[in-house]
Design brief:
By secondary structure, this protein is of the alpha+beta class. The protein has 2 domains: about 10-90, OB fold (Dihydrolipoamide Acetyltransferase, E2P); about 95-294, no CATH class. It is about 30% helix and about 30% strand. The chain has helices at about 20-25, 100, 105-115, 120-135, 140-155, 165-175, 245-250, 255-260, 280-285, 290-294; strands at about 10-15, 30-40, 45, 55, 65-75, 80-90, 175-180, 195-200, 210-220, 225-235, 235-245, 265-275. Strands 1-6-5-2-3-4 form a 6-stranded antiparallel β-sheet. Strands 7-8-9-10-11-12 form a 6-stranded mixed β-sheet. Helix 4 (about 120-135) packs antiparallel against helix 5. The longest helix has 16 residues, at about 120-135. The relative contact order is 0.08.
Length: about 290
Amino acid sequence: MQTPAILGSLQIPVTAAPASVAWINTLVGQTLEATLEANLPEGLLLRLPDGRTLQAQGDLSFPLGSTLQLKALPLPEGAGVRLQVTGATQPPTPALLAPLVQGEAAQLLARLQTDQGSAPTSALATLLRGLLQAGPTAPEEPSAWSGWMKAAMKTLADPAQSPVEAPFHQLQAKEGTALFEVPLPWAPDAHPMRVWIENQEGSQDPGPETVHRVFLSVPFTRLGEVRVGLEQRHSGLRVRLWAQDPAQLQASLPGLEAELASLGRPVDIRLLPLPQGLPDLRALAGAPPLQAMG
């Protein structure tokens, strides 16, 4: 017989619930199911299927709303009950957050390949076919990147074209932020390009000036993942490049800095190594701006 894995442990000392000692002791030896209801100053609040609640000491890594399978064991010398977590089911993801959790690039690419949509979607599908026909030279053209990004993001934010994704983007817009996943026509099996945008109202910067930030995560065949952070202020432009192998981009840095400086503002550009095992841009999107920019 296989022993269930222990995912965590809580305890209910009799001293913490003197009025319920008799009932708590009846739990010993039982297998329970409970919902993780709330975080308390000294532990967690669990709700049983019959509506009764338990206050248990300890901490778990599961989100609120998770359903827990528990094995109740006695603490030494009748001091209370230990609850071993043998299983956990996280709550279902709200449909509104599906683009964030499940990604939206693959779904958009699939819709475009079938070309079953109204005029705007069909226009994007036509652009997709043009990029595919251009072959490996397409990614080398800045206009190809710019045109595809703008058209894809516009489609994802349009309720008529993207009824699943658009409500998420509308909610973000109210907070002054945006997160898009854009498929790469020339590398459909690669990770998508991820774009995070925030303005002053969506950041934690208390300054009065208008600040715009854009973070991009782009997968390249030879370079691997490259992340770019752009911060525009009245005082100038800050640029951060993170690469798995910064040495491959070092020679391009002076030319990039000169091109950005031609826009008429001071440029502060730095090339940094991209740490291994870093979460993708969806996980980092909500990080404090100064921390994200380095």
